[in-house]
Write a structure and sequence with these properties.
Radius of gyration: 22 Å
Order of helices and strands: EEHHHHHHH
Helix content: 55-70%
Distance between the termini: 14 Å
Number of strands: 2
Strand content: 5-15%
Shape: extended
Length: 175
């Protein structure tokens, strides 16, 4: 787990952030989870938690994580005029035309739909359960697809802009 705090350095060129690693809280968390599973009273306590509460927490965590992805940001651009694209995103600069941004987004959505459909079909129809084993292969196939196929559709500059993590300066890690 990482904690970011303001830097005490008065240097005006400093980004203002330092990262300190914290290994105590994850260790305590895993210890408490282990105790709940191993101790009889812990299992009883876990069984009293309603399934709806667990499902709600997992749905919230999944939705919150989804909101921070570039894919989710670009899905909204499918329905936005190119003149209204945000200018603070690296993939919305003039280096990447709106058509290419939309094409990249549709390709990503297609790969996601393929992975979900294989996994969903294997759960819904028991005779198709071997399809669920194909899910990791679909994910692994995305690497050669990105390295071999996409360079024929997009230029190197477009792929760099579409794959960029963020526009912010990298955070310097100190030990």
């Amino acid at each position: 787990e990482m904690c970011i705090r303001d830097s005490p350095n008065p240097n005006p060129h400093d980004t203002g952030s330092m990262v300190h690693e914290n290994r105590v809280s994850p260790a305590l968390m895993y210890l408490m989870i282990g105790l709940c599973i191993l101790c009889p009273f812990g299992r009883t306590a876990i069984e009293t938690i309603p399934n709806a509460a667990v499902d709600g927490i997992l749905a919230f965590v999944g939705f919150a994580g989804m909101m921070d992805t570039h894919l989710f940001e670009r899905v909204s651009l499918l329905f936005t005029q190119a003149s209204d694209f945000p200018t603070d995103k690296p993939y919305c600069h003039k280096a990447v035309p709106a058509f290419k941004i939309r094409l990249f987004t549709v390709l990503q959505l297609g790969a996601l739909a393929l992975a979900w459909s294989l996994n969903g079909a294997s759960m819904a129809v028991p005779s198709l359960s071997p399809l669920g084993l194909c899910f990791p292969f679909v994910v692994a196939a995305l690497v050669p697809f990105r390295l071999v196929v996409l360079p024929h559709v997009f230029t190197a500059q477009e792929l760099d802009a579409l794959d960029s993590e963020d526009t912010a300066e990298p955070v310097s890690y100190t030990h």
